[in-house]
Specification:
mainly beta, Omega-AgatoxinV, three-stranded antiparallel β-sheet, two-stranded antiparallel sheet, TSP1_rpt_sf, CCN family member 5, integrin binding, signal
Length: 223
């Protein structure tokens, strides 16, 4: 009886010859012109979640079918993904489950179980202040998608005065620092590094110091 229902509807609604309006309808964005269920006239394809029936078909290019599973007595159906496939909709575009796309040049997303899982395409590195670049700043560069770090030249007079005079800070500085790293060489004089804010400006910076794990063995004398 379920299979006989579309045949009965087809016999009642589909008449030959076809009588269609001269001017095709103007469809909203994302809804293409398709043939109706009788294959006669061009209509606007129904989108995800919109009501549908035998005549008003869903947009098959998006993988949509007319879902009667929640419709009583075959009425009140809506467009849904085929085989209960979940999708994602963003800015009027529907992405299938598992599809990878880029909503912008900075993000790459994946449609998964009706939601989004995105990863950044720009590096999220952090540049710490150094003596040659005490004020690093991240800025947007025209023509490039990802921001870049620049060294902002400001307060150089404070740096010059700090060599001889220790200027008081307007706030208390809570000292913080990592442990010194291992020596860069296994023997002889090398250097170790750490990140600390123990300086005149209480700013995080990379600090270095000389170190020597052990003396290097003497080379054999040339014969």
């Amino acid at each position: 009886s379920v299979m006989a229902l579309p045949l009965q509807v087809c016999a009642q609604l589909c008449r030959r010859p076809c009588y269609c309006p001269w001017v095709p309808p103007h469809c909203p964005r994302g809804s293409p012109l398709v043939l109706d269920g009788c294959g006669c006239c061009k209509i606007c394809a129904r989108r995800l979640g919109e009501p549908c029936d035998f005549l008003h078909v869903c947009d098959q290019s998006q993988g949509l079918v007319c879902d009667y599973s929640t419709a009583p007595m075959g009425t009140g159906a809506t467009c849904n993904f085929e085989e209960a496939e979940e999708g994602c909709e963003l800015n009027g575009r529907v992405y299938r489950d598992g599809e990878v796309f880029q909503p912008s040049c900075k993000l790459q997303c994946r449609c998964l179980d009706g939601g989004f899982s995105c990863i950044p395409l720009c590096q999220e590195d952090v540049r710490l202040p150094t003596p040659d670049c005490p004020f690093p700043r991240r800025v947007e560069v025209p023509g490039k998608c990802c921001p870049e770090w620049i060294c902002e030249a400001r307060d150089w007079h404070l740096l010059r005065d700090a060599r001889t005079v220790s200027l008081p800070l307007p706030y208390p500085c809570q000292e913080w620092g990592t442990e010194w790293s291992a020596c860069s060489v296994t023997c002889g004089v090398g250097f170790s590094t750490r990140v600390s804010n123990q300086n005149h400006y209480c700013r995080l910076e990379t600090q270095r110091r000389l170190c020597m794990a052990r003396p290097c063995p003497a080379l054999p004398a040339a014969s």
